[in-house]
Write a structure and sequence with these properties.
α6 runs antiparallel to α11. The chain has a single domain, classed as Rossmann fold (3-Layer(aba) Sandwich). The protein is globular. It contains eleven helices and seven strands. By secondary structure, it is α/β, with parallel strands linked by helices. The protein has a seven-stranded mixed sheet with strand order 3-2-1-4-5-7-6.
Length: 269
């Protein structure tokens, strides 16, 4: 299981929130009674679901105790209507039908997740909604260079099988086919965001490194946690290659980031 640090993950909170907002904006549920956010992380975005649907019971689910500790602080006056639970998404199975199920930037961590989707559709109430977003950037330099460095002789044995590649997620058509096959009406699309990272220069030439330290680099740093010198060697080698792929400009560091979306409505009866 990947370890998570809410503070590091939150470095680029606004950029990470934008796909969530775009995803949920396509969910046309008027007065849902139950809303679930699978892979809720530190909970800020789950709390926004409670504000959007003030009559709903909203549950954030995550496998990370560290993230859930941070998330608990967002319940506030909405508790107990807004609450958070610890569970692995692959094992999630609600006791009652769900009106809206959101999963944002989670499924890339779940091998074989396309096979989960029909089960999740079956967990929806009639006319319920399933909305998902996954990063589609596994072929981008940020990830390709990480795999390239991991294959160097001094790292290869320790990191064999740690990093996944482009098989981690599907294309819009893959998600549309599975969800339509489960009887849903589907809207699937992709967007490439151009994030301008760190315009103030807090991270110098390493703005993209600061991004991946919160997400994609976590499996590597976890795998090398018992050897700080080797871990530092990996990060330094990778960082040097990232600087070449994502040079800083006077106005910040541009990071193109492709994301894949699907919103599906279950049959009404």
């Amino acid at each position: 299981m990947v370890s998570w640090d809410p503070q590091v993950y939150g470095r680029y909170a606004a950029e990470r929130a934008r796909p969530f907002v775009d995803l949920v904006g396509r969910v046309d549920a008027e007065r849902p009674a139950s809303v679930v956010d699978l892979g809720c992380g530190s909970g800020e975005l789950t709390a926004s679901l409670a504000r959007r649907w003030p009559g709903a019971d909203v549950v954030g689910v995550d496998s990370s105790a560290a993230m859930l500790q941070r998330a608990a602080g967002h319940a506030g006056s909405d508790a107990p209507r807004l609450r958070f639970e610890r569970q692995d998404a692959a094992d999630w199975n609600p006791a009652e039908p769900v009106d809206v199920l959101v999963t944002n930037a989670l499924l890339q961590w779940v091998p074989g997740h396309l096979d989960l989707l029909p089960r999740w559709v079956a967990a929806l109430a009639p006319g319920g909604w399933l909305a998902l977003q996954v990063p589609g950037n596994f072929g981008s330099p940020s990830h390709a260079l990480m795999r390239e460095v991991a294959a160097l002789p001094r790292f290869a044995e320790r990191l064999d099988g740690v990093l996944r590649g482009t098989e981690s997620v599907g294309d819009p058509l893959d998600y549309a086919a599975v969800l339509a096959g489960a009887g849903c009406v589907v809207d699937a699309w992709e967007t490439t965001y151009l994030h301008v990272l760190d315009p103030a220069g807090e991270h110098g030439d390493d703005a993209v490194l600061a991004w991946v330290e919160g997400t994609g680099l976590r499996p590597v740093t976890d795998a090398l946690a018992d050897d700080p010198a080797l871990r530092r060697d990996f990060v330094d080698t990778y960082a040097a290659r990232l600087r070449g792929a994502y040079p800083r400009r006077p106005w910040g560091t541009p990071l193109p980031f492709r994301r894949v979306f699907a919103v599906a409505q279950a049959p009404t009866g």
